[in-house]
Automatic annotation (TrEMBL):
This is Major facilitator superfamily. It holds the Pfam family MFS_1. It comes from the Bacteria. One of its GO terms (molecular function) is transmembrane transporter activity. Belongs to the major facilitator superfamily. The keyword Transmembrane helix applies. Residues 9-392 form the Major facilitator superfamily (MFS) profile domain. Keywords: Cell membrane, Membrane, Transmembrane, Transmembrane helix, Transport. The chain crosses the membrane at residues 12-35, 47-66, 78-96, 102-122, 134-160, 166-186, 217-239, 245-269, 281-298, 304-329, 341-363, 369-389. PROSITE patterns: MFS. It is found in: Cell membrane. Its main location: membrane.
């Protein structure tokens, strides 16, 4: 049975962040080992990206299914169910005899992984005190980004020494340990949160209505364009670094991915936004992303590419928690699960589509074409968010958002 003594908020937040980080890591853990996957299944390396596409598309699509459920059911239990399913899917992937089976397993990994952030992000939003909500939401969002880094770095290094199948099984063992910690500290005997009395079908209709409102729609579009460019650049960076003149190994790609630790800026950006205003932080963050892409795209120097990656993650995660907060402030508290899940859906969906859409761009125009396409996507994100900011009555530190009724 779970521990009957209530866990402090910081303990709950720490476990939630670790759970989200590891779940997200499993979606992105193939990105640094495309070469090893192609060798294991005897195919061209350009096709290995479909392992990531399968995981990330199922991860994104799952949020539309899971989001409304997060507004109805016990959130910690949803997260623990996701960890259990994720563990089984990873073990299945580690035994895959062929690439088709492996892609199916990665799809199951993506769907199962989505249960964790879809439940933990609204859970922390509800638990955090109003004056610290930006800090706690930023921390959970940052943990998702650290998952991208952790997946690329840890699995890349483990694969270089032990092979990718063993690396997957080590990740599964870590998930088992996290599940035990979550069961002990998150499942506490306490009064259940009061859930809305709408029929389940109405919750799905409400999720669709969220998309039809101009303000949430603009914020969702911003997230889509941001992640199309951001994840598109990060995904094809592996191809760039494993090709001449760099010829990096999986371990070396993993090490350079540590630059993504600048995503730790997210909690501070979330906290600062409550004083300066979300637009005054997020718009410069998009500008930093554009500068970073130019450093990564046009430089032949590994230090400059690393600097660009540092700035890209920092800029993207100045924006990400603030857009979460803006969306959360635009909907009733009872729709937080649907709203946050829709936002993750369009973000990861944009990143998933970029891995497929940019394939022909890479084939015809190489890294230059990818850089231009991703830069245009970031410019579109800045344009949409800038337009939204200009139409706000107050978009400085005193800006307030009014929840929109769904029914």
């Amino acid at each position: 049975m779970p521990d009957s003594s209530p866990a402090p908020l910081h303990t709950k937040a720490g476990i939630a962040c670790l759970m989200v980080m590891t779940a997200v890591a499993t979606v992105f853990m193939t990105q640094s080992i495309f070469l090893e996957i192609s060798q294991a299944f005897h195919m061209d390396i350009s096709k290995a990206r479909f392992a990531f596409s399968g995981a990330s598309l199922c991860y994104a699509a799952a949020f539309f299914v899971i989001g409304p459920l997060a507004d109805r059911f016990d959130l910690p239990r949803m997260a623990l169910m996701g960890l259990g399913a994720l563990l089984a899917a990873i073990l299945f992937a580690s035994t895959a005899p062929g690439f088709t089976t492996f892609v199916i397993a990665m799809g199951l990994i993506g769907f199962s992984a989505a249960l964790v952030p879809a439940s933990m992000i609204p859970h922390m939003t509800r638990l955090a005190p109003p004056d610290k909500r930006g800090l706690y939401v930023g921390a959970v969002v940052a943990s998702g980004t650290l998952g991208i880094v952790f997946g690329r770095v840890a699995v890349g290094l483990l694969t270089a020494h032990l092979g990718w199948r063993v690396a997957f099984r080590i990740v599964a063992l870590f998930l088992l340990i996290l599940s035990a910690a979550g069961y002990a500290r998150l499942l506490e005997p306490a009064p259940k949160e009061k859930r809305p009395g709408y029929p389940l079908w109405d919750l799905y209709l409400n999720a669709v209505r969220l998309v039809c409102r101009p303000r949430p729609l603009a914020l969702l579009a911003t997230g889509f364009f941001l992640f199309f460019g951001f994840l598109g650049m990060v995904t094809f960076l592996t191809y760039r670094l494993t090709a001449p003149p760099f010829l990096f190994t999986a371990g070396e790609v993993g090490w350079i991915s540590l630059a993504g630790l600048t995503a730790l800026i997210a909690p501070f950006a979330g906290s600062l936004s409550q004083k300066a205003g979300p637009y005054r932080i997020s718009l410069p963050g998009l500008g930093i992303c554009l500068v970073a892409m130019q450093l990564m795209g046009w430089s032949q120097s590994v230090p400059l590419i690393t600097l660009g990656l540092l700035l890209l993650f920092a800029g993207a995660y100045c924006c990400q928690p603030l857009i979460f907060l803006l969306i959360g402030a635009s909907v009733p508290d009872s729709a937080l699960g649907s709203a946050s899940s829709l936002y993750i859906l369009v973000c990861i969906g944009g990143g998933s589509l970029s891995s497929m859409v940019l394939g022909p761009v890479w084939a015809h125009w190489g890294w230059t074409g990818v850089t231009v396409a991703c830069s245009l996507s970031l410019a579109a994100a800045a344009g949409v968010l800038g337009t939204l900011a200009s139409r706000e009555p107050h978009h400085g530190k005193d800006a307030e958002t009014v929840p929109l009724p769904l029914k």
